[in-house]
C-alpha cells in the first residue's frame, strides 16, 4: 500500500496529524487529490453548498443586501472552494446582478484536481474569478470571506489522557499493516489544553488542530477588515472536550454517506474529519481586533439571510402549485433547514471588522 511506503520513509512511525495529511492531501493518492468526486449524493458526504443550490441562492440575496447597504461592490473569497459549487450557485443566484454586487471572486482551494474542476466550471463566470491555492484575502473592495467545512478538513493531532500524562496517538507500520501506538505528547499539545483551560479525563481521547488558529489569524490580518462566515461542525472548547459528551473525540471517517470509526482503514479512499474548536477562531479574531457578530445554526443563518424571500421570488412559496419542481425545491430546502440534521448540526460563526461588520450585524442579528 502506498502509505506504508510513505510512513517507512519517515522512519516507520508518524503522528496522526501526518497520517491524516497524507491520507487526505498526498499529491497522488490523497483523498482530495483523486479525480473522483468526493461529495454530493453520489459521493461520500454532503456539505451545505453541495446539498442544494438554495444555499448559494440565499447567499446571492445576502450579498446583494450587503452591497446595497454598503454602497459598494464586495469581493467574495471562498476558502476551501472545492469544485466551485458554492461560487457557481452564488453567481447563478445573482444572475445579471452579479456585476453590480461583486467586484470579483477569489476561490481558494488546496487540491490541484479540484482547482482544475472549479476552473472549468467557472470559466464563463459573469465576474472575474481567480482560482488559487493560497489564501490572499487582501482586497481594495469590502471583503466577504466564506469558508464551508475548511477547518474540519484540516489534519489534527490525536491525544489520549493517561495516568502517565498526555500521550499522542501515532500510526506505525507493523507486519505490513498500520497500527496505533502512543508516545509522550509534544509540549505544544500540552500547552494547547492549558491555554484553553481544559483538563481531559483519564482515558479520554481528543483532537487538536493548532494550525486552525494560526490560519484564521493570518487570513484576518491579511483581509484587514470585512466579514468572515465559517460554516462548520464545531463546539467551544468546554463542550468539545467535555468527557461526558465526547470521550472518544470527534474524529470520524465518511464513505458513501456512512460514518466510520476505523480511521486507518483504506487511506486516501475515505474522508477524515474532526470538529472545530470555535475558541481557536475566536482567539484569532480577538488578536486581530475582529468582533464576533454571532454563532448560529445554519437554519437560523439561512432564515436571517433571506431564504424565505428567495423561495417566494422563485415561485415555490406557500401559494405555489404542488408540481414536481415545487416538491423537489421544498425537499432541498427542508434538508438545509432540518432541525434534526444539517440545519442545526452545522453552525455559522460570523466575525467582522469595520463598516461591513456593522452592516452584517444589522442584517443577521435583528430580532426575528
Ligand atoms: C469538506 S471539503 C469542503 C468543500 C466545500 N467548501 C463545500 O463545503 O462543499 C474540504 C475542502 O477543503 C480543502 N482544503 C483543505 N485545506 C485547505 C487549505 N488550507 N486551503 C484551501 N483549501 C483547503 C480541501 O481540499 C477540500 O476541497
Strand composition percent: 15-25%
Adjacency order of strands in the biggest sheet:
4-3-2-5-10-17-16
| Average of the residue pLDDT scores | 95
3D shape? globular
User: Could you say what the CATH topology of one domain is called?
Assistant: Rossmann fold
Unreliable sequence segments = none
Number of DSSP strands?
17
**Terminal Cα separation, in Å?**
55 Å
The CATH architecture of one domain comes to 3-Layer(aba) Sandwich
CA-atom Rg in angstroms: 21 Å
Could you describe the largest sheet, including whether it forms a barrel? Answer: 7 strands, mixed
Structure characterization notes:
It is a single chain. This protein is of the alpha/beta class and 368 residues long. It has a domain at 48-154 and 211-233 and 275-359: Rossmann fold (3-Layer(aba) Sandwich), CATH 3.40.50. The chain has 16 helices and 17 strands. The chain has helices spanning 2-9, 16-25, 48-51, 53-70, 85-94, 98-101, 112-121, 187-195, 210-223, 237-240, 278-287, 298-304, 307-313, 324-337, 342-345, 355-365, and strands at residues 13-15, 74-79, 102-108, 129-132, 143-148, 157-162, 165-174, 177-184, 205-208, 226-232, 234-235, 252-255, 258-260, 271-273, 276-277, 291-297, 347-353. The strands form four sheets. The chain has a seven-stranded mixed sheet, sandwiched between helices. Strands 1, 6, 7, 8 and 9 form a five-stranded antiparallel sheet that branches. Strand 7 (165-174) and strand 8 (177-184) form a beta hairpin. Helix 4 packs across helix 5 and helix 4 (53-70) packs across helix 16. The longest helix has 18 residues, at 53-70. The mean pLDDT is 95. The structure holds S-adenosylmethionine (SAM). S-adenosylmethionine binds next to helix 3.
Amino acid at each position: 500500500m502506498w502509505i506504508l511506503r510513505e510512513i517507512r520513509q519517515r522512519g516507520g512511525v508518524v503522528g496522526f496529524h501526518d497520517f491524516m495529511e497524507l491520507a487526505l492531501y498526498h499529491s497522488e493518492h490523497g483523498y482530495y487529490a483523486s479525480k473522483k468526486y468526493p461529495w454530493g449524493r453520489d459521493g461520500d458526504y454532503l456539505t451545505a453548498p453541495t446539498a442544494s443550490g438554495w444555499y448559494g441562492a440565499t447567499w446571492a440575496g445576502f450579498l446583494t443586501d450587503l452591497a446595497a447597504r454598503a454602497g459598494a461592490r464586495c469581493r467574495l473569497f471562498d476558502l476551501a472552494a472545492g469544485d466551485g459549487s458554492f461560487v457557481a450557485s452564488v453567481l447563478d443566484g445573482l444572475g445579471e446582478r452579479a456585476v453590480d454586487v461583486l467586484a470579483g471572486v477569489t476561490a481558494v482551494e488546496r487540491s490541484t484536481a479540484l482547482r482544475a474542476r472549479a476552473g472549468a466550471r467557472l470559466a464563463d463566470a459573469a465576474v472575474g474569478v481567480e482560482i488559487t491555492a493560497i489564501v490572499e484575502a487582501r482586497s481594495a473592495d469590502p471583503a466577504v470571506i466564506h469558508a464551508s467545512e475548511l477547518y474540519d478538513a484540516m489534519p489534527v493531532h490525536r491525544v489520549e489522557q493517561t495516568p502517565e500524562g498526555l500521550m499522542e496517538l501515532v500510526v506505525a507500520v507493523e507486519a505490513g499493516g498500520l497500527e496505533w501506538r502512543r508516545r509522550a505528547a509534544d509540549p505544544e499539545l500540552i500547552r494547547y489544553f492549558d491555554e484553553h483551560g481544559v483538563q481531559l479525563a483519564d482515558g479520554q481521547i481528543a483532537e487538536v488542530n493548532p494550525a486552525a488558529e494560526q490560519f484564521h489569524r493570518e487570513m484576518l490580518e491579511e483581509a484587514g477588515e470585512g466579514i468572515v462566515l465559517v460554516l462548520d461542525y464545531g463546539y467551544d472548547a468546554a463542550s468539545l472536550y467535555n468527557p461526558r459528551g465526547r470521550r472518544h473525540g470527534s474524529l470520524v471517517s465518511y464513505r458513501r454517506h456512512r460514518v466510520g470509526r476505523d480511521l486507518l482503514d483504506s487511506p486516501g479512499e475515505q474522508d477524515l474529519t474532526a470538529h472545530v474548536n470555535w475558541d481557536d477562531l475566536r482567539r484569532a479574531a480577538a488578536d486581530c481586533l475582529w468582533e464576533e457578530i454571532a454563532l448560529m445554526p445554519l437554519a437560523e443563518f439561512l432564515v436571517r439571510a433571506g431564504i424565505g424571500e428567495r423561495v417566494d421570488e422563485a415561485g415555490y412559496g406557500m401559494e405555489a402549485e404542488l408540481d414536481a419542481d415545487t416538491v423537489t425545491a421544498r425537499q432541498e430546502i427542508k434538508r438545509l433547514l432540518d432541525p434534526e440534521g444539517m440545519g442545526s448540526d452545522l453552525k455559522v460563526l460570523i466575525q467582522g471588522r469595520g463598516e461591513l461588520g456593522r452592516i452584517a450585524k444589522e442584517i443577521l442579528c435583528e430580532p426575528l
